[in-house]
């Protein structure tokens, strides 16, 4: 999550995230773009879920944790960081958000 905060606040690079923000205002004529970006976001969550399942199988994530729910949580937070970065929120403020978000994550 810190790397997301870094990337959306990097000087000289456009803020935000194409896959998070580009599909939100799509018109009917751009429906295919909307669908494709939805697919890309879903793949991100799915890939993270698979990695969390591997971590659980390796003993790095407690058995009581639901990898699908945790993947959804993490991607929701990171997408929010992208939106806030596009709004111009500072890296330091995004780091504070990440610190709160990590409190909810299993150790």
Structure description:
With 107 residues, the chain is mainly α. The chain is 66% helix and 0% strand. The protein has five helices and no strands. It has helices at 2-7, 18-21, 31-57, 67-87, 91-103. It is flat. 12% of the residues are buried.
Quick structural overview:
With 107 residues, this protein is an all-alpha fold. It contains five helices and no strands.
Would you spell out the secondary-structure blueprint of this structure?
Elements: H1 2-7, H2 18-21, H3 31-57, H4 67-87, H5 91-103
- General form: flat
- Characterize the main sheet: none
Report the count of strand segments: 0
Report the mean per-residue pLDDT as an integer.
87
Note the main attributes of this structure.
107 residues, mainly alpha, flat, 0% strand
């Amino acid at each position: 999550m810190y790397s997301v905060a870094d990337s959306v606040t990097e000087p000289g690079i456009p803020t935000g995230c194409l896959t998070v923000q580009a599909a939100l205002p799509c018109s009917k004529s751009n429906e295919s773009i909307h669908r494709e970006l939805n697919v890309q976001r879903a793949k991100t969550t799915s890939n993270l879920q698979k990695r969390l399942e591997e971590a659980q199988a390796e003993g790095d994530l407690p058995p009581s944790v639901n990898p699908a729910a945790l993947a959804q949580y993490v991607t929701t937070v990171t997408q929010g960081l992208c939106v806030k970065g596009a709004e111009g929120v500072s890296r330091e403020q995004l780091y504070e958000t990440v610190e709160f978000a990590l409190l909810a994550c299993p150790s």
